[in-house]
Structures are given as C-alpha cells and as structure tokens.
Amino acid sequence: MNYENNKIELEENGYSVLADLYSENEIRQISTCLENSGQSGNSFLKTKDLFAIRQLMKNVPELADLLFNRKLTELISDLSESDYFLTKAIYFDKPSESNWFVAYHQDLSISVDKKVDLENYVNWTFKKGQNGVQPPIKILQDTITIRIHLDDTDKNNGALKVIPKSHLKGIIRTDSKDWNIKNEYICEVKKGGVMLMKPLTLHASNRTTNGKKRRVIHLELNKHKLTDPLNWLEYRNEKPADNNVYKT
C-alpha cells in the first residue's frame, strides 16, 4: 500500500487520517492486552475523566508485536527516507462519562532520561517520575505523531480538532493572532484507523457528549539523536528481519 498522499497531507497540513490499519481482530487483541496490564505504579494515571498509561512499551511490552503490524511499519517507512524510531508511547482512555476537554495547544515537550543543563533545551518538568523538556525546534518539526484509534471517534466523543498548517508557524503563543479557530478541522477516525500529526500543529479536544468512550494509543517517532549526554527516555528501534516489526 502506498501512503504518499498521507505523507504530503502531513507535511502540508500538519495532519492526515487513515482508515483500516488494524482489523477488528487486531483491535480486540490490543484491547485485551491493555485490559490485562497491571495498571499500578507511577506510569498509570486514573481519574474519573481519564485513564492513561505512560511509557506504554515498557509497562505493556507484549503490545509491540500487535501495534507494529505490517501496515504500520510500511506507513512509517513511506513517511520518511530516514530511519525513524519510537520516542514515546502513551495510552489514553477517555471514558464515556468524561467531562474532560483540552484547549488548543502544541506538543512541545519530549521525555528524556535525565535533567541536564544544555543550550536550547528549556522548560524542564518532572512528572510521574520522568523528565520532560522542550528541545530545539528542529526536533519538534521532525517528530511524527501516530494516534491509533481503538474506538470510532467523532466530534461528540473527543476527536481532535486541529488548525491546518499551523505547524508551519513554529512555536505559537495561544494568545497570539497567528491562528484562527474558523479554520479548525475535526479529525474523525474510525476504529482501527490512525491519525498522523505534527506536534507543532495546534490541536484540541472537546468533552464527550454522546456517551461513547474514546481509546487512543499515542506514539511519537523521531530521527534525531539528542545532545550528549541526553537520551530519549523511551528509545526503541529494533526491527527483526523475519516479520518487520519493532521489538524490545
């Protein structure tokens, strides 16, 4: 399958939506794997409005073979001639009764293995036992976000809203006049589909109003080595030749 059009959309508009990367059976296996995870420790966040698993591949390692099926690995290969690797994986479960919404923002933080005073690495955070930092803008520009949808998602249960082409404007203050909500687009995605996004694309999501849950696996990939001695917290880049999937 050729994903050239999706690559063009991602580069030009900052997002693209694909259908049917996962079969009904694959989604069922992924869901079962998540349900059987231990769900305890710093990487697991549970409130009435959200359940999340950070460092997903570390905490649920058996997901790797299920997520990186042939279609996804072909997609990643088609998106860039460079060798992209996984840098972050999070699972979000927005329950059917969720009253949680997210205002327009850009994803400006990456997860790293330590805190180090380095030029162009700013806005350090430490949450749930892991360090985050805003890296040089080139790293953000070259990040590819892949959102795998385990449920049908539309405007009524938290589908992402985006401002097309906003990723081309660099880092944007949300109170600036560099973007207009009239241009927003709602990225509705069917179960088994995927949304691609640049992290500098302004995006938001509404509260759930239709009583349906929205479960998403959020992956981030990059091709850059960080400035020494800093390393990506969740670096993974092994691809066995026999089945062409990412593994530990």
Write up this protein:
- The protein starts with a helix and ends in a 26-residue tail after the last strand.
- β2 and β3 form a beta hairpin.
- The longest helix is centred in the N-terminal third of the chain and has 12 residues.
- The chain is α+β, with helices and mostly antiparallel strands and 248 residues long.
- The protein has one domain: q2cbj1_9rhob like domain (Jelly Rolls).
The tally of strands reads 14
Order of helices and strands: HEHEEHHHEEEEEHEEEEEE
Domain module count: 1
Structural class of the helix and strand makeup?
alpha+beta
Radius of gyration, taken over Cα atoms and rounded to an integer in Å: 17 Å
Classify the beta-strand content into a percent band: 25-35%
Global shape: globular
Q: Strand count, sense and closure of the main sheet?
A: 7 strands, antiparallel
Provide a compact summary of the structure:
With 248 residues, the protein is an alpha+beta fold. The chain is built from six helices and 14 strands. The chain is globular and about 45 Å long.
